Amino acid sequence: MKKLSLGAFEELVLLTIGVLQDNAYGVTIKMELESQLNKSISLGALYGALQRLEEKGWVDSRVGGITEKQGGRRKQYYDITKNGIAALQEVRSMRNELFDRIPQSKINFLNS
Amino acid sequence: MSSKTQNIKPPRLAKWLLQSFCSYDYLSTALWDLEELFQYNVETKGQRKAKWIYFKESLSIISHLYFKGHSQYSLNTTAMLKNNIIIALRNFKKHKNYTLLNIIGLSSGLMIFLLITLFTSYEFSYDKYHEASDRIYRVYKSFDTRDGLYTDSGTPGPLANALTSEFPEVEAAARFSKWRNQLMVANGNSFLEPALHAVDPSVFNIFSFELLDGSKDKLLSYGPNIAISETTAQKYFGKTEVVNETMKLDGEMPFTVTAVFKDMPENSHFKMNIIAHFEWAQNTFNQNLTNWNNNPYYTYIKLKEGTDASSLEAKLPQIRAKFADDPIDEDGQMYDYYLQPLEEVHFSKDILGSMGEYADAQRLQIFNLIAIIVLVMASINYVNLATARAMVRVRETGIRKILGAKKYSLLSQFLIESGFLVFLSLAAAIVLANLLIPAFSYFIDRPLDFALDSPLFWLQILGLGFVLTLASGLYPAFLMSSFNPLWAIRSKTGKTSSNYLRNGLVVLQFGLSAILIFSALVLKEQLSFIDNVDTGYTRDNIMILSTRDDAIDDNLNTYMDQLFQVSGVDAVATSWSLPTNVTSNAQANWPGITDAERIQMFMLGVTHGFFDLYEIDFIEGRAFDREIKTDRSAIILNEAAVKAFGWDDPIGREMIRQNGRKATVIGVVKDFNIKSLKQEIEPLQIVLNPNYARLAIKLSGDVSSTMAQVEEVYESFSPAYPFEYTYFEDIYDRAYTDDTKTGQLTLIFSVLAIVIACLGLYGLASHKVALRIKELGVRKVMGASAIQIAKLLFKDFATLITIAFLITGPIAYLMMNSWLEDYAFHISLGVLPFVLTLILLFVFASITVGFRTYKASISNPVLALRDE
User: Fold this and answer.
1) pTM score of the predicted model
2) Could you tell me if B214 and B250 lie in one domain?
């Protein structure tokens, strides 16, 4: 099977879903991301990423929040899956490993 | 969330778009999120911004999910739309030649259409920018003369005040008088102003002016005050805040600037740059403002809202009866006053003496017609190519039908295809037209520009695109969607009745091209006739000098003598008006004349050198002689006059001049054109008189060095006024500028039209070749030569072109004949332009068809025959 890859934006979305836990749906994800990244994100791009993440099996979606107020429309909540967490961990450990291989002296030199 | 904000609804259009495009699985989610975001934004960022964000977000969702993503559950119709767009694009890519042909044809047709309509709509926009332009009227008068009704725009001084006091429905009235070529000096700068206007201050209430400096209630008060335009202020002072500055007329007479207004737009039939107070100016120059028989002024009135202009017009005759002492004027002529809507002034050629130049509305309509013709030809191309290709696409439609496509969905598929092409061409046309605008506006001498920032313009473009899509796409779409699916399976590209239609359209195209080519040829012939016709006077090497300054008028004789001394100047002469357009009138008169013999004739005062300078020939008698003092009371007639009088022996006959003095006829000149070639040569009397003159000199040798010396002489006589001169040839040509430009434009358009027609022909020829490829292959195998095959293919088109020519030839003949009737002097329509038109049509058509068929006829027959 082809190895699934995690794009940079997808990674951010996935992380945010994990952070938001039970309250991750379109608007909250968008707002959280915007406040973290300090730039505006279009819903379209977000849905695109969510669609891809769902296909890869890294998020689950469930329907909720059907209320009178919103005219019976459904609200799509997202949860991170076990595979999702694994993907995040893999990316993270790969990054850490690479980061650790940067010589400490170089980091010290550049930081000073 | 307050209940107030909840009532604000998100934009409906965005919601509708979302509902029709967004895939089903995301639709309600998206709607939920957008709604929540919207309510939040309404509270934090305001309603307008929230709506805008909603709209933007919807579009981004559509583009991400519908076009980039791979949602499968979008609504069926919109899924088909997506599919259709993709199929259309694929089709364009696959048949690049065909697409290119269509786009080139359509975009050049559209470009011409855009440019022409831009020009004509500019002309029709004249004077419409005034807020109350539909309530402003120009007063003009007309009276019966022996030669028929005479109308002009000159009105008497007391008319305006009489109108306002007598008719309550007249809101305001203003009188204009215009002084040409006045020298103004201010701030150390001096310029010759082409025109100064003395106008009643009410002009600011009638027309729309935008004030830049000065106060609204003190625009122009009685006294030596002037209001000036922005350009004028910049020209003299380099700034626009110039109220209370002084400008001097002729460098002597001071005026105070009391207002600066924004320049009047170019599409005004009169443009004022410097405005003086009317009554003050007339009083200062001792003009009589109470005389009803002195008509040098223009009168414009503004009516109150809801006034019926025609009922007011009917009451106008009362005015003269009531206010003027004599309803009938001295010559026994009865004046009647009429109203003309301001918006029509630009197009009135029958009312003489207007402030601006007039435009020929008929000519503009003809241009509009040409624009539409070219557009129709471009659309025909599309229809022809599309229907021709329909035969090839029969299999595609057949399969679609078998798979269950409804007629409606096929229709929309083909319409989307043509819509795509049309809008692509439209975009190309706008870009092209924009590039050509500078050259085009220079050519027609109008400041044209597309209103690219106006929504109305884009709305019109959008409308044009839709109309064109329907006009050109509907028939092919119907044709293709009505194919019998069985054809597809039988793999038979059947014959349909659309062959007739296609042939008919080709005939129409070439017929229209024939008309355009024929017109262009005739126009060109007539214009070169105008250029070379013997007008009875020469136009070569003659310069017309300005004689604005009184200083020159006072010393005219010495001035002329000194000019004559300049080496390179062969002759010097003045005349009241130039031979191209003699304007002064006189009545024939001699002792014992009967009333019937008192015919109207033209009159020209000249100096001695006139006949030599313009090389006007004498038939009988002699020219004025410097040595013979009695020539001051001599008259020279033209042939037309002698003929009109019915005199056998004119020399020595006595006549009575306009001033009552007796004069003897000493010569008769050969008829020369005293008006443009559109008019017959009228009777003319020429007398010796240097006043009110236009001064002409004839040059030989080097023009520039001679003119430099002439300028020196001029400077010594008139240091204040700048030296200006014009080639007589240019003045002659100017009378025919409109026709020359029409001719050149028609020529360009007809070439483009025929190119468009040929593009279509090329497409059709390719189609024919494709259909008959097997037949051609067999013929070649049997031994047919390339030429024979080309001939075979060309035969059909030749028939069509001949039919087109036969149908439209007579129409073109009638059209051009009626145009030529405008000219009293014109060419007679011979066979030549017809033959040339036919030859040109055939040459163009054979090049296009020949090129295509030649390629087919030299191809290897094996290629055509092997896949059976």
Assistant:
1) 0.73
2) yes
